[in-house]
Amino acid sequence: MRLTQGAFSFLPDLTDAQIAAQIEYCLQQGWATSVEYTDDPHPRNTYWEMFGIPMFDLRDAAGVMQEVNACRQTFPNHYVKVNAFDATRGIESVRLSFIVNRPAEEPGFGLIREEGAGRNIHYTLGRRA
Amino acid sequence: MNAATELSLEAAFAESQVADVLHQLDAELIGLAPVKSRIRDICALLLVDKLRSQLHLNTGLPSLHMSFTGNPGTGKTTLGLRVAEILHRLGYVRKGHLVAVTRDDLVGQYIGHTAPKTREILKRAMGGVLFIDEAYYLYRPENERDYGQEAIEILLQEMENHRDDLVVILAGYKDRMEQFFRSNPGLSSRVAHHIDFPDYTSAQLLAIGQLMLQQMQYTLSREAEAALGEYIELRQAQPNFANARSIRNALDRARLRQATRLFAQRDKPLSAGDLMTIAAQDIRASRVFAQAVLGRTS
Asked: Strands (DSSP E) along chain B, which ranges?
């Protein structure tokens, strides 16, 4: 099952040139970019692992692409995403985030049923084994 | 050759708008004739390479890493900025910004600190020019555990692998740079252009001083001009002379004295000319003149 999280996730995978162009846009806006990865893409998993520290004061996408490629090489079977953080007062939040690498096979999620008090059924998403 | 493949260097030159930067180089940088001619050579080569690539002739990505050697205050950093601009207009660097760093920005303080630090700076410089001032401090032969060597190795690797993303300029004093290159032959061979900055003559320094004043919107009275000429002659003979930088400092002090002089007579009305003019006494009050007199009497 294809994971649809972040921007562009309903589109076909972006090519490297397209990724570089998106990063270029982020840098033009003055956003700081960072690369993150995870093997647990549960929608409630907001904290992915950081790949290196966030990159500040970059002027060209080549530097970020270098990190993206290094991360893909290290974790070819993980999800990798690029975040762009806007430090403007009042925003101070991630403005753009998109997936740049997916595992060859995406297991997706399964529905977990749990019986609670009074035979109530709780539903949640769980990792499919 | 048919008309379709006919190429005009003139057109390529006009299109790249490099002429503006070269004119600016001539107007704003006084002297430095060998440096300017070298920059022109590089420009010409890059333009010809561009035309060759239009005809699908083999050009080979030119190596653009440079080393600037010269005494302090001879305009190395200023030229670095101009070179970044020129390369940007010719399309050899994408952004054309200059990242000026020294040893402290590249070398870490403990094991494992250097590599990320150097890489971060390199990433920041991508698409532009990395200007390493006093590059010889990176290599400290007296301490074999110095982390500078690690920074040099990473630098070498990136200079080779990211030639289309990054241009590195190494700058420093001539003799120490030569020694640095001798002990790091790998680095020396990757630097294609070694440019040496000559010292300025006193006439050139005077012209530089006047240009600086013009940019700050000051003028010299005729006597002050003569005084500045004498000042330069005397200052050149003294130790720690840093060419244009010394002149800038001297002019800054002259401005201080002019302000004090104007302030002392604050009951009198002032004209715009008074505020703009630096008088002979503002320059002659300098310590340099007093020391020269002392030197003569003792």
From this structure: 66-70, 98-101, 128-133, 166-172, 193-197, 219-220, 277-278
